[in-house]
Amino acid sequence: MVTLVIGLVLGFIAGRWQRRYQRSWQERQVAEVLGRQLNPQQEVLVNNITLKLADGSTTQIDHILLATSGIYVIESKHYRGWIFGQPTAARWTQVVYRQKHQFQNPLRQNYRHQKALEQLFDFLPSEAFKSLVIFSGTAEFKTPMPSNVIQLQQYPAWFAPQRGEQLLSINRVQFCLGRLQFCRLSESDETDSLHRHNLQQRRQPRL
Question: For residue 7, which of 13, 23, 41, 148 sits 20 to 30 Å off, Cα-Cα?
Fold first, then answer.
């Protein structure tokens, strides 16, 4: 019996570690592509940011690109199969070998992230914030993709024309970076655990 319990515990730990490592690898893959496009004179990329909100909850943002052309709030997703999704739908659908799986509309998810940054950088105009969802992996969209949802390989072509709009000064970008680094929670197991707990609390039905 003891051996069985130990095996279950070790299996749970190994599974959790594998999922975390896989997600970390996928986000690093996206970060590398984003990083190769940076102009270090006017752009800086920050990854895996957890912020505590005014109501005590937390939000985790995969990537934030601070640039003179704007504040890019980036959500990355790694999927395969077919993707069906409408911009205003609450949930999108993934189909793999006729098996359907629904997931939260990443545009809605990223909207919460954007609002958190708008509060943090409350001295910036709303037009400075730009939401982007990037799909890595081999997923194929079977519905039209919104203009701010792209495949990872499309990012260089998507981002190049963005630089034509200068919305922020270098000093503003540097100030935003300083505030972000000061306010973000540390990257740790404790931070991830806190965020998971907050997500569970938020998903519980209100009486």
Answer: 23
Question: Residue 104 pLDDT more than 90?
Answer: yes
Residue type, 126: S
The span from the CA of 115 to the CA of 136, in Å, is: 24
Per-position DSSP letters for 134-157, written without gaps between them = EEETT-EESSPPPTTEEEGGGHHH
Torsional class of 78: left (φ above 0), alpha (ψ -120 to 50), beta (otherwise): beta
3-state helix, strand, coil split of the chain in percent (to 5) is 45, 30, 25
Helix 106-120 × helix 170-183 angle, to 10°: 100
What is the amino acid identity at position 119? Q
Cα 180 to Cα 49: distance, rounded to the nearest angstrom: 9
Sign of CA dihedral 20, 43, 75, 156: negative
The answer to whether 168 and 120 have CB atoms below 8 angstroms apart is no
Cβ distance 195 to 50 under 8 Å?
Answer: yes
Cα–Cα distance, 152 to 155 (Å, whole number): 6
Residue 143: how many CA atoms within 13 Å on its side-chain side?
13
**Tell me: the pLDDT tens digits for 20-55?**
444 577 888 999 999 999 999 999 999 999 999 888
Can you give the residue ranges of every domain in the chain?
2-203
- Cβ contact 104:95 at 8 Å: no
